[in-house]
Amino acid sequence: MGLTQLITLFKQILLFIGICGVVVIYSGFLYLMFTGQPTVNLSWYSLLSPWVCIYFGLTRKQQVAVRKWFYNKFNL
């Protein structure tokens, strides 16, 4: 297994973990909100951490597009 194949495999694993994390964490968050239970115990980084996995699982071209989108979105 070459280095490029290993990197591709690692990126696919990061994407899978990130997508699963988004589904699990956000469904749990929505469940807590809709049942009226407090969500103050959830820290902000637990809601953002799956997105970090997804970002690093993207290809270089997709990462550049994401950075460009954020720059255009929040540029005043």
Description of the molecule:
This protein has 76 residues and is an all-alpha fold. Helices cover 80% and strands 0% of the residues. It is built from 3 helices and no strands. It has helices spanning 3-34, 44-57, 60-74. Helix 1 runs antiparallel to helix 2. The model has no long low-confidence stretch (mean pLDDT 90).
Output mean pLDDT: 90
| Number of strand segments | 0
Q: Which percent range fits the helix content?
A: over 70%
* Radius of gyration, CA atoms, in whole angstroms: 16 Å
The poorly predicted ranges are: none
For the largest beta-sheet, the strand count, sense and barrel status come to:
none
Overall outline: flat
Tally of helical runs: 3
Quick structural gist:
The chain is mostly helical and 76 residues long.
Quick tags:
single chain; 76 residues; mainly alpha; 80% helix; 0% strand
Topology:
Layout: H1 3-34, H2 44-57, H3 60-74
Helix pairs in contact: 1-2
